[in-house]
Specification:
The protein has 212 residues and is α/β, with parallel strands linked by helices. The chain folds into 2 domains: 1-53, no CATH class; 56-211, Rossmann fold, CATH 3.40.50. It is built from 7 helices and 9 strands. The protein has helices at residues 40-52, 76-80, 86-89, 94-105, 121-133, 162-167, 197-211; strands at 2-9, 21-27, 31-38, 58-61, 111-118, 139-144, 156-159, 171-176, 189-192. Strands 6-5-4-7-8-9 form a 6-stranded parallel beta sheet. Strands 1-3-2 form a 3-stranded antiparallel beta sheet. α4 crosses α7 (197-211). The termini are far apart.
Length: 212
C-alpha cells in the first residue's frame, strides 16, 4: 500500500475509493481532493472510473508554460511554500487564455479541459483560483507529480513539455512559449504563444477535425 493523492473533478464519482483507506478529504469548488492509502491497481481503477465518465473527446490545456507564464528563475522554495501562493500570482499568457475561453464558448463535438500536474493540495487550490479568476470554467484534471497525464486515445493535449506529449495515448500538440523547444525532440503538431488567441483556437480546432 502506498500513500497517494487524487483529485476527483466536480460532478464525478469514484466508487473505487471505497476499496481504499481515505486519510484526508477536502472538497473544493471544482474538485475533491483525497489522500488515500492504495495499491497501484486500486489507484489505476479510480483513474479509469473517472475517465469512463467523460463521454466526449477532450482538448486538454496544460497550465504551466501554456496558460500561465513559466519563470525559469523562480525558486523552488517559493513554489513549494503555501504562504507565497506562487501559482495564484503567476502572470497569464494572454493569447492562450483567450484561445481556451473562445473554445469553451464554442459548441464543439469535443470538450475543453485542463490537465495540469500539482505538488499537493495547496498548489491545486491556487491553480483552481487562478483559473476561476480568469473565468476559465471547464473540466479540471489535476495530476500529482510523478503520475502520467491520463490522456485517452481520443483526447488531445496542448503542452509545452515534450516528455508529457510523448507519453500520452492521445494526440499531442506542443505550445512553443519562447523558452522551450531547444532540443528538437518534438516533430508533431504545434502552435506558438505569440499567435493571436482566435488564430490559436482556430488552429487547435483544425487539428481536432483533421485527426478525428
Amino acid at each position: 500500500m502506498t500513500t497517494r493523492e487524487i483529485y476527483i473533478p466536480k460532478g464525478f464519482s469514484a466508487l473505487s475509493l471505497e476499496r481504499c483507506e481515505i486519510l484526508k478529504e477536502y472538497p473544493s469548488a471544482k474538485f475533491t481532493y483525497y489522500l488515500i492509502s492504495a495499491t497501484d491497481e486500486e489507484y489505476a481503477a479510480i483513474v479509469d472510473e473517472i475517465l469512463s465518465q467523460i463521454k466526449r473527446p477532450v482538448m486538454y490545456y496544460d497550465m504551466d508554460g501554456v496558460l500561465a507564464m513559466f519563470d525559469k528563475t523562480a525558486r523552488m522554495s517559493d513554489m513549494l511554500n503555501p504562504k507565497t501562493h506562487y501559482f495564484y500570482h503567476v502572470e497569464e499568457m494572454a493569447n492562450s487564455v483567450e484561445a481556451i475561453k473562445l473554445m469553451i464558448s464554442n459548441d464543439n463535438k469535443y470538450q475543453i479541459g485542463i490537465c495540469s500536474k500539482v505538488l499537493g493540495l495547496d498548489q491545486a487550490i491556487d491553480k483552481e483560483k487562478w483559473l476561476l479568476k480568469r473565468g476559465i470554467d471547464c473540466l479540471l484534471m489535476f495530476i500529482p507529480y510523478g503520475e502520467e497525464k491520463p490522456i485517452r486515445s481520443c483526447d488531445y493535449l496542448l503542452d509545452d513539455y515534450s516528455a508529457n506529449l510523448h507519453e500520452i495515448k492521445g494526440t499531442g500538440i506542443k505550445l512553443y512559449n519562447g523558452i522551450n523547444g531547444n532540443n528538437g525532440s518534438w516533430h508533431g503538431y504545434s502552435v506558438h504563444y505569440q499567435m493571436a488567441g482566435h488564430i490559436m483556437a482556430t488552429m487547435l480546432d483544425s487539428i481536432v477535425k483533421l485527426t478525428a
